[in-house]
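Note to self: the last two entries modelled the partners one at a time, which told us nothing about the interface. This time every component goes in together.
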Amino acid sequence: MVFSILSTFHIKSQMVLSPSGYVSVKVDLSNEGVPRYSISYKNKSVIQPSSLGFVLKDGNNFNNGFEITNAETSSVDEFWNPVWGEVKTIRNHYNELKISLRQTTTQRLLTLVFRVFDDGVGFRYEIPRQPAINHFIIEKEETKFNFGKDHTAFWIPGDYNSNEYFYYKTKLSEIDASVGHTITEISAKKLFDNNAVQTPLLLKSDDGIYINLHEAALVNYSAMNLILDKNSFSFTSHLVPDAIHNAAYLQAPATTPWRTIILSDKAADLLSSKTILNLNEPSKINDISWIKPQKMIGIWWEMHVGKSSWDKASSKHGATTANTKRYIDFAAKHGFNGILVEGWNEGWEDWFGTWKEDVFDFVTPYPDYDINYLSNYALEKGVKLIMHHETSSSVTNYERWMEKAYHFMKKHGMEAVKTGYVGYIIPRGEWHDGQWMVNHYNRVLEKTAEYKIMIDAHEPVRPTGLHRTWPNFLTCEAARGNEFNAWSQGNPPEHETILPFTRLMGGPMDYTPGIFKIKMNHYNPTSTFQVHTTLAKQLALYVTMYSPLQMAADLIENYEARPDAFQFIKDVPVDWDDTKYITAEPGDYVVVARKEKGKENWFVGAITDEETRTLQFSLDFLNKEEKYIMTMYRDADDAHWKAKPEVYVIENFVVTASTILKLKMAPGGGTAISIKPATIEDTELYKKYKVK
Ligand code: NOJ
Ligand code: CA
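The predicted structure of the combined assembly is written out below.
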């Protein structure tokens, strides 16, 4: 019997709709008392009945024999202002269904919470405080996402340790996760299932619904991979295990992260979803005055292209006092706030692949790096050094040094740190994306917040909207960044058109755009490596690849050689009052317009994949009363990411809200545009824009 006669409610199924009714969720119990949910969007089924539950380590399954003891609905409609972001104000508008369950044999209680927004659903498990269960170990979470159809998928292989892959676009039936595991994937965890993929996963149905599957608020839990059953086109969650193969350790009361399904029938609208942010807790930082979106340069790309080195043993040490001074001068001259310096500290001689626990102490500079002099010099010049903490994944060691390291930073006037977790996690057996590391990353956010330090994390677990709760968490890597183009086969031209639909759904990315010297044979004549874009597309990425911390990643001399194109990087802001995703298709193109925070200036970024593309759209987002001067940085007519990547044209025109813009992008190309209110002189000097 599903319902015991003692139960107070005899509820069989419950339904909840989103505020405008586009999305509906139905929750019920099977005959065996297995909780199930299904989702439809604009009257089309998106997720067919899918079961929910856990297998616990104590041998008691926590996935059947339930009865519903209560069901409650509630609604929220509120507005909040993020500390920084793509828009000034965010609406949080949903209907909630909370279902209380009791497992009849064990008397254990489980609550399911569904929040239904007009652009998707978040649901999570809550294990209330109760006599029947206290602390427990999850062996498996068995959440199903039963699509029932052979959708097109943009996926990267399942992995416990790395998300630094390019994306595959195939039908679900064609997923073969063994393909992506090559030696260029740093510290990838060996394949655990040929049908496993990671989130954020993007699906497109044959009838044109875009579906992003991810999670929100990953706290004290392991990240979720997904394993596909190709017979039913149903995914089952697969939590990243710990060293002894347990999935997660919890103590009641406990909540899991939200499992998120974002839905749209227009690809561009998926990109403006705020549902993942809305499912995260509000900021835990009260005084936010020290949190500053910013641009940085750094002693960084020169190591990746082999011009200098992190370590001091070779004669090419990059982080010398003289070189850093050069970067400080350049930053001060061109209006950059931060200078990242990697390789400043002792330890780089044997930091990688050695399994050494105590390579770095984070407070001992190399002798040729005069940190006292440089921090005073930066202060004088009105700029800030940005700290680098490569942990070499020796995480217990980092935790031991953390507080001293943050003291050291503050003493030297530093307000931001780039962390890094290259290699296998020490202690051995833990994985980058398991609960143990998730807790570490979150502890770092909390600790740095105490010290008023901003964070850019490399090789962390992929983000889940936690930057709402910890706005000092400016950005992170957690995907295959531009650096792969310096020393590997790199990222295909379509890569940057997929990232916004996948990785960036969880939060900003430190992609490190702005590479002007596209071909690596500039540094090493025998190299065939290159950035797989045109120069103009590198500019457009500052707008399409949202991050409140952006790096101008190339070398000083490469910017000095092209001051006209560099002007765009100087002008483009990193914080916005408004964002309009104009048109987009994953794997093909993205066009976005953003309005600078507190100003009337707009910036447009348009990028394409390996195909040349002409796109036409209206500037109707501009103020109707105003005339603007538009500066367009576009691909030259003969530009091509491979044959001729560095040719571009810069043109100025007068535009208004009624202007129709036509952009032609080269294969692997893009267009970057700044639009500012025009002066009288501008309108006299420049022609009105007309479609050719
Ligand atoms: C990998 C990071 O992504 C990169 O930015 C950094 O330079 C190296 N690790 C060294 O820490
Ligand atoms: Ca394509």
